[in-house]
Amino acid sequence: MDEKITAEILTRISGVNPRKCMRCGKCSGTCPAYDAMEYHPHQFVAMVESGNISPLLHSPSLFLCLSCFACVDRCPRNVEPAKLVEAVRLAVIRQQGGNHLKPERIPEIVAEEMPDPELPQQAVVTAFRKYAK
């Protein structure tokens, strides 16, 4: 793992300011995955704010979030906890190198996904944007 994931990196990726959170718990109260999650939406926000990122990186809660944005709708301060969870998830995937597409794999993927020989250029550009960051 090359780069240490910090609160600054996560706030930059997500665009969320965790300091706005007043810990009311409304986001967690509306979360449909609450019972399955080890860390709830308000805890994600609090842990990022405090810089306690390490437990989040290895938590199964990271992939149990449904990204339904119910927590975002419910937050009275517009903190957007789901975006923060998604940022942690993306940072972990990037650290593991799981989001990089190698050019030599494109023909194979294209053949699987789009059997039509007239591949729209947009699909190739989208794949590079998704997998090459």
From TrEMBL:
Q: Which GO molecular function annotations are given, in alphabetical order? A: iron-sulfur cluster binding; metal ion binding
Can you quote a single GO CC term?
plasma membrane
Segments forming a coiled coil = none
User: Which keywords belong to this entry?
Assistant: Iron, Iron-sulfur, Metal-binding
Q: Which residues form the 4Fe-4S ferredoxin-type domain?
A: 11-42
Keyword Iron-sulfur listed: yes
Alphabetical list of InterPro entries matching this protein: 4Fe4S_Fe-S-bd, 4Fe4S_Fe_S_CS, HdrC_iron-sulfur_subunit, Helical_ferredxn
Q: Name one Pfam family in it.
A: Fer4_8
Is Iron included in the keywords of this UniProt record?
yes
What's the name of the protein? Answer: 4Fe-4S dicluster domain-containing protein
Species of origin reads: Candidatus Avitreponema avistercoris
